[in-house]
Structures are given as structure tokens and as C-alpha cells.
Design a protein that fits this description.
The protein is an alpha+beta fold. The chain has four helices and seven strands. It is 29% helix and 26% strand.
Amino acid sequence: MPVEGEYVPSPSDWVREQVTEYEASGGARANTLRDTGLPIIILTARGHKTGKLRKWALMRIEHEGEYALVGSRGGRPENPQWVYNLRANPTEVMIQDGPAPFDVEIREVSGGERGEWFERAKNTYSGFAKYEEALRGIREIPVFVAKKD
């Protein structure tokens, strides 16, 4: 069932503007992550504190119809907020990869499965390897797998 409710745009200008443009164009514009040229998806989840909808532009890491959602936060020592939202509300998540959003089932992965998905992420964007190294001993970068509902 679609994730519905009040949407609160990101306080970050670039995220808010990218999400707005991506959605308005059905994914035809604003569909790469800033200056990387790498494709993105839009993640929608319910906030773990407010219950309101939040949206983020995340790197598109797709394999056989499933998507990796990598909580790297650019190598910062803390998790991105969306990680807590997914953990608190795993059944209220949508992805937009093209013209229209769709519901997804998500699960946080660990062990060998996490390793496989993180390798796919590093093959998509080499920066993930740098973030992993920078965070060694601080935190393990969370990885979620999303599958169309």
C-alpha cells in the first residue's frame, strides 16, 4: 500500500531541489548524484520521530530487481537519518526509479549478504571503499536491500 501522509522536504537545499525536480520530471531530470554523473533513486520513508514522510536522493545500486540502500553518509561517523527511519518503519518505504514511485519491502542485511551488496555498491561508486576505510573501527556502514512489493 502506498506510503501516505504529510511530506516534510529536506532542510538540505540540494536534496530538496533534486527530489522536487526528479519527481516533477518523472525521473527525466535531476537523475544523477550531484556532479558524479551516477544515477540516483528517490527513497521515501516515514520519519521515526515525527511520522511524517521524508525523501532522499540515493545512489542507484540495482541488481536483479533489488536495490541496495547504503548508509554511508559520505564517510561521516554517524548514520544518515534515513537509516533510523527504515529501522523504525520498514514496511512504509517507497522508491522512485523512473516515472513513478513503488512500494518496497526492505531488510537490513549483514554478514556475507551485506558483503555481496557492499561489493556491488563499491563497483557502482568507488567512494564507498574510501568511506568504509575511513569508518573502520567507528561504525559499519548499514546496507538495506529493497525489493518491489
